[in-house]
Write a structure and sequence with these properties.
Helices cover 21% and strands 34% of the residues. By secondary structure, the protein is of the alpha+beta class. The longest helix is centred in the first third of the chain and has 17 residues, at 48-64. It starts with a strand and ends with a strand.
Amino acid sequence: MKVATIRTNGKELAAVASVQGLVLIETINAAEAANWSVELFELIRLGELESLTEWYRAGGKDKLVQLKAIPHEEAVYAPLYRYPRKIWGIGLNYVKDAEELAAVDPSEEPVSFMKPDTSLIGPLDPIRLPAHAGKITAEAELGIIIGKACKNITEAEVYDVIAGYTTTIDVTAADIHARNQRYLTRAKSFDTFFSFGPQLVTKDEFPDPLSIQVATVLNGESIHTNLTFHMKFRPWFCVAYHSQVMTLLPGDIIMTGTPGAVVIRDGDVVACHIDGFEPLLNPVRD
């Protein structure tokens, strides 16, 4: 199941994707005499996304085509939600191929960082280049969305605690970071430096998240592409590892690294393309 948040009548409301468009949760509630939350963050926080997914898989998908929908080409997407408690990022996570993967030091640990929710934007929102920051880069990444509170879990338990996946773009003030590696948080935290959406794809759509292709695209050209199989730290590990550090909460986001970064300039359009997802695009503005 694919869920998005769209702007309609001055509100940002959750909707489920169907073949003819996006069906608002409030429309599904009216048709099914149901009471699912109409905002995506609340669907996740309250554990309702699982029951909605069960409904979808048990015949709801076919029922959607009978309901009023907003055509895909008319939908105005918002971020999936505005205020996640945590946004984690993982750096330097992809290698070139299986041979390089086999050579990874087993004692190596992930390079992790956090971003504030004030950096958050959604599809087609502009990435604003901060004055005097120098070179700015952007990276396409697969994002994991946590569905249940968890602490000190194992990799075997991860599937049960995630809600699904999304497309993300991580932006960095590369020159600031290059001056001193300790400046990573500062370099990652400017306003508009994190984009996510337009879809949350539920975990049942990707029972094996190691065969997904991720691409960083600039002005329509795919610059960097790789498979999640070539991650040094696979999605299950990333969630379990960070749960050893702090309690993960519903709606928390973990970016899993990038196949490569591109330098962005005023007038560019940067995009995250991932197999099975609608692409995430953001224009770049001074």
